[in-house]
Amino acid sequence: MTKRTIAEKTIWEDGAQMLRKAEKDEVETVWDRLDIQTPSCTFCDLGLSCRNCVMGPCRISPKGDKRSRGVCGADGDVIVARNFGRFVSGGAAAHSDHGRDCIEALAAIVEGKAGDYAIRDEGKMLRIAAELGISGDGRESSDVARELVDKFFNNYACRNEDVSFLGRVPEKRRRIWDKLGITPRGIDREIVEMMHRTHMGVDNDAANTMLHAARLCLADGWGGSMIATEVSDILFGTPTPKKSRVNLGVLKKDDVNILVHGHNPVVSEKIFAAVNDPAMLALAQEKGAAGINLAGLCCTGNELLMRQGVPMAGNHLMSELAIVTGAVELIVVDYQCIMPSLVQVGSCYHTKIITTADKARFTGAEHVAFTMENGRQQAEKIVRMAIEGFAGRDMERVEIPGEPVEMMTGFSNEALLSALGGTPAPLLEAIKAGKIRGVAGIVGCNNPKLKHDHCNVTLARELIKKDILVLATGCVTTALGKAGLLQAEAADQAGEGLAEICRDLGVPPVLHVGSCVDNSRILQLCALLANELGVDISDLPVVASAPEWYSEKAAAIGTYAVASGIYTHLGLPPNILGSKTVTELALSGLDDLLGACFVVEADPVKAAELLAERISMKRKGLGL
Ligand code: XCC
Ligand code: SF4
């Protein structure tokens, strides 16, 4: 067991203050459990353990001694590739099932079974329908929406029908995928096929399995995730630039504090509506609170931040610490990245954890099942529970750290293009002129193995210094927001060229483009720029990074980024190092096949140099 000090755990003052309080209050956190779990199993770390059948479990010795094959005869390469394949399947499934839930929400609206949910951006619905070949001429918009719903559902099916948004992919990229046989077919089909391939005795060629991993991740990026993004915009509005605030200081001492956590805006948007109901406010005041304060965690927080400007309390590693403030009445969750420990941490205070999705229940939490029909009522019920909970708060145990930091958000591609005057041309001009040397998407999570947000923030600072525009999503957003990088004033920290552009447009050098499924916005933007220039995405001076990633979903995102032609940095490796074949493929072989590969670098300053080098190389290739 290794024990980390608070200074080793986080760069943040709000985090450190709550870690001290957690110690005092004897609350166990994710870092304590990591200490207990350390060191982890070397075989699992290297990807060399297999539990795919009960002839095993098997472990392959990394030392190359006689334990070189599992009972069935699978070698280390096959086992590592199979494990990676199943790992990213989990991630792609999560994003894509979330996407499907969004389609079901749209379907319920079309069928008149959706309570007070409505299509909030009809213009976008009609635009997307037209893009996918659905005519709107002389038709009721509900008819068009119905056909769009069918089209989206078919994206998941098993017929050899293309994933709809592949129409956005540059020709050259499509040819590469076709040649390698990795053009994704139905979303579910690719995920199921990976489960099939990785059963004992099916796909026993590591490279072949890895190529299918690329294919199923493409089905996530250009399929499930992109559908989740576009349908969420249709349902709840396409984000536009707005201001908000971030860090634990957004909690209010005198208010009922409610946090939303998870990913799908279908629940959190209704909580937002209920919180803003005057009747709820009156009730809260009756119970002695000054008001009701709603704030976000993780990606459902990002969704509300982008569309409604709801402030962000914290990212992944702040979710337990938010409860430690003693000021949170209730956390309402949907699914993904919600640490099961929230129930235990909540029980140390008065904080209720409310689950809403039947597929995501937590023992010890209270379940308020959300459907499209009862969304509004359930949201009101939950807000009432929070208000009732206010009386149970022990004011002596309340400690809300610091002052919130201002930030800008809401940069959907639509908003970005409209800020540029309707076309990507000014962005391309700035890139050609070298004022913006390139673009980097910094995405993903926190991981307690790494000092909280250190790599996320340092990498962003280093990149903007080098005139590289940063696009942020997911839990990175909160990190960069807390660091002040999502403010227009942060232009002062950027290189001269980028600073000039930011000042002209009044935007920060780091643009918040959304949640994790919204990485699809970055894909779409890349495709747009590549198509405008008549090149492939891999020709663009564009890179990506997930400095502190932890999840299966993040691995799927990294994989579809690479398969889409985007050179991608990871701050720590996936569990593949036990196979030389798979590791070499990921770190270089894919570059020959796909025009992009992974790079693993723990030091964010060095990582920034590597990413900048790649951008310089791509600029040269374009004759810039
Ligand atoms: Fe989860 Fe999306 Fe990672 Fe954050 S960034 S820890 S995946 S909430 Ni997606
Ligand atoms: Fe062992 Fe092969 Fe079974 Fe995996 S599939 S547990 S390597 S026998």
Oligomer: single chain
Strand count: 16
Distance from first to last alpha carbon: 52 Å
Low-confidence stretches: none
Coarse morphology: globular
CATH architecture label name of the largest domain: 3-Layer(aba) Sandwich
Distinct ligand kinds:
FE(4)-NI(1)-S(4) cluster, iron/sulfur cluster
Read across the widest sheet, the strand sequence of neighbours is: 6-5-4-7-8-9
Estimated helix fraction: 40-55%
Main sheet attributes: strand count, strand direction, barrel closure: 6 strands, parallel
Mean pLDDT rating: 97
Total count of domains: 4
Class from secondary-structure proportions: alpha/beta
Distinct helical segment count:
25
How would you sum up this structure in a few lines?
This protein is an alpha/beta fold. The chain is 49% helix and 11% strand.
Describe the overall structure.
The protein has 624 residues and is an alpha/beta fold. The protein has a six-stranded parallel β-sheet with strand order 6-5-4-7-8-9. The longest helix has 35 residues, at 76-110. The chain is globular and about 65 Å long. The mean pLDDT is 97. Bound molecules: FE(4)-NI(1)-S(4) cluster and iron/sulfur cluster. Iron/sulfur cluster (SF4) binds at residues 50-53, 55-58, 70-72, 74, 79, 200.
Q: Which terms summarize this structure?
A:
single chain; 624 residues; alpha/beta; Substrate Binding Domain Of Dnak, Chain:A, Domain 2; Rossmann fold; 4 domains; 6-stranded parallel β-sheet; 16 strands; 49% helix; globular; binds FE(4)-NI(1)-S(4) cluster; binds iron/sulfur cluster
